[in-house]
Amino acid sequence: MRLHSIFFISIPIFIAHGIEEYLTGFAEIDSIFAFVFQAVLKMSVANGAFVVFQIMFWLLLVMSAFLLLGEHWQRRLLIIPGILYIFEIHHLIEAVLRWEYYPGLFTAFAFPLLAFFFWKERLHPAYQSARI
Question: What Rg, from alpha-carbon coordinates, does the chain have?
């Protein structure tokens, strides 16, 4: 399976995962979220929303610029979701450690599978060709 196919499959999974996290209160209990966004969480809602929007817009611009540089950069940028597939396994780990449901758990079951296929393809010797 090619990397771009794995990435396209992961998009609706990420969307469902984000919805599950939102509906089950992930932001209220996750210590990683609290640590990463501590500065934004101390702001007013308006300022926090503005800062997050600005940062997301800047990231969109930078990513777009890299994508315009060609296929070599596209392959490099695909490493980001590959890392996220592994990182999202923390929902499973938290559920096992707590021995109860952890927000985002149900959709997180897809990420180890995505990680396996992604890294199998990415690390395969044939990947060194121009395929993405």
Answer: 17
For 51, the token pair is: 């800062």
Please answer whether residues 102 and 65 qualify as being in contact, where contact means their C-beta atoms are separated by less than 8 angstroms. Answer: no
Is residue 91 helix, strand or coil? helix
User: Would you state the structure tokens that stand for residue 68, as one six-digit string?
Assistant: 């315009």
Number of H helices, E strands in the chain: 10, 0
Q: How many domains does the structure of the chain reveal? A: 1
Residue 71 structural domain: 3-128
Q: Rounded to whole angstroms, how far apart are CA atoms 73 and 66?
A: 6
pTM given for the model: 0.84
**pLDDT digit string, tens, across residues 9-46:** 999 999 999 999 999 999 889 888 889 888 998 999 99
